[in-house]
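I can't quite decide. Please look over this sequence plus structure tokens:

:::
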Amino acid sequence: MFQLPDEVKKGIESYKSALGDLLTGKLAPARFKGIRVPWGIYSQRGEKVYMARVRIPAGLVNAAQLKALASAAEKFAQGKLHITTRQDIQIHDLKIEDTAKVMDYLKEYNLSARGGGGNTVRNVIACVLSGICKDETFDVRSDAIALSEYILRQEASFNLPRKFKISFSGCRKDCAGCLVNDVGFLAKLENGKKGFKVFTGGGMGAESRLGKLLEEFIPQEDLGYCTEAIKNVFYKNGDRRNKHHNRLRFLIEDLGFEKFKELYRKELKDLKENAYIALRKMEASGDTFLKRSIAVGAGEIPQIEDAEYSEFLKYNVQPQKQKGFSALELRIGRGNISAEDLWALADLEHEFGEIEFRTSQNQNLFICWVKQQDIYKLFLKVKGILPDFLYPETILDIVACKGALTCNLGLCNSPGLSKEIEKVIKENFIGKKVFEKLEIKINGCPNSCGQHPIGKISFYGMVKRVDNRPVPFYRLLLGGRKEAELTKFAEGIGVIPARNIPVFLKEFLEQLEKKITGEEDIYEFLQGPAKDIAQEVLGKFSYVPAFSENKDFYVDWGKQEEFSLAGLGPGECGAGVLDMIDSDLADAKLALEGAEKENYSIQQVKKAIFFSSRSLLVVKGVEPKTELEALAEFKKKFVETGIADSRYGDLEDVFKSIRDDLNAEERKEKFLYAKDFFTHINELYKAMDSSFNFPQRQAEAEKLAIAQNTLNLKGVACPINYVKTKLFLEGLKSGDTLEVFLDEGEPIDNVPKSLQNDGHQILKIERLNGFYRIVVKKA
């Protein structure tokens, strides 16, 4: 089993010291964030409670560790745990003062959240059936665990340009996804010698990339050297400034793969000549889990006339390569499990001998080394603990990130949507062909905690404006695949309002059921007939009525209040702004495409100009209500300040000149103007930095406009109020104070925390008659 290095245990003392400074006011929250996040401590939505992401190397966890996690969740939190797609287990709803207590408690069980977040080497994952799978080349667990121990001893593993992910797969089925990790090791035998095929530069996210083949074969003893060489190249050459372009895959693209390989070879040569990297040999250390392969099971699987048990045997039970044993996969809905249930499952070890537990990348829990004669008895025990554990690895086994429930980056409530989809599946599709052939993955934002890029059917959350209000939407993707060199990312098909996804899926799956024979290659089917069907059905469910007509579309699943970007953490206020920009630019692009198809439709041309002009105004704290207001404000904020090209100074006149009586040539001329304008806006957007600044951004006129340090933002909603405050502060000197008036609710909840995260100091928060006054000291 994994042994937590002493370096990590000793490091907890430094964390406790920094935490003490935070609690006594000696350390600012923004600075402490840089300490706690690499320790796997994340703020949850609202910044009131926190989450600890505990590493489970290779997904292997014993009963005592599960009980320790359950106890920590009960003692220090609300008893809520979550299994992630990287085989971690998260403890939710922690108070910040209790995070060190959790670390101290878990270290006694060789558990730690160290490296669970930030620019670190994250949990090293492996095939969940390693060591018991009949198809594996060899058992990769010891390699994944030994490499984890080595990485956690290296200080450089916690100060990388960006996060760094490693996976191990035991055969070409590639359960761990070698091509979608920064480094992927695929088990391989060469002349009877154990080793690995090595891929690098893969990853999922807003800009997913497939990994490239780095080594056709490395011997097992070179595993540490290879990993350290890749990590060193990243450490020395990665972009640490641009968090949107600093993953290893972008470094490889910028350098070119051949140049990257040249740097890697140099690092590898230097390490072999000047360093000695020896990973722990677990066979020699007496680890019992590696000796289980010689155990002998007993009896046959009981056959009982019980419909639910029959389904359990069909879907949950997998025979091991060791005779007489089986592995049982328990579906854990959305990866969420209570401390009470986790403890009860772990306690089964007393009745069923040396069973073994593992977490999977499908957010499920495996019980391995179950004697076949005990399967029915264990089924009855599990049934008394978990209310809904049948049908893992079916379309009902939905992978879903935490989304807007707890995540600061979450745009949509992905768990809420998954519950609605589960209802549709249970009522209509259990036992059908699509039930076993397909899968669904859901992400609350374009990031990939829910692994939407490799889902057969997947969705990721986005926001679009309708009727001048934000509406939760999702993008539908089809055809993702995870299988070594055959790995393929899902293809985007279209967007759909969140409210319509359950009804869309019902009709879509009903049509697929009629087409599927059970003999076809499911991936070819998803890229062909299924794609055409999806596009046709999407057309039926893409419409969003006006707010006055149907308010349900403006409320996310699992919520009661109207949808908004409020609640995004202070570090993510900018993410909400960017999402609004992206939404307008997407609409402008669609309008241009529509205009070209419709003989340069003047309505579509005017839409393109309006959406383009409005898109960037959000970073100026402006949210226009009409088309002409958007054009006037764009001219004032961008053209007259020298940010946008002066040729767009006549934007309002051009817009007004687009009339019904224009001939074909004149309509085309206006279309080309709108197209050029859209291109220019995109160029400005690309030039904008992470603080919403543009080249030559702030003209002298704007600086002189600041006459006094008071800002009345009553009636201004999030995130516009934050942007206006941010822009005003930029005109002040360090140490100056600003008085801001904000409304109750989201404005006072979000703006002060966002400003603190920017480094400013909140000197005072005062409640007045129906609103708040805050005093900010500029950093």
Observations:
- The longest strand covers residues 457-466.
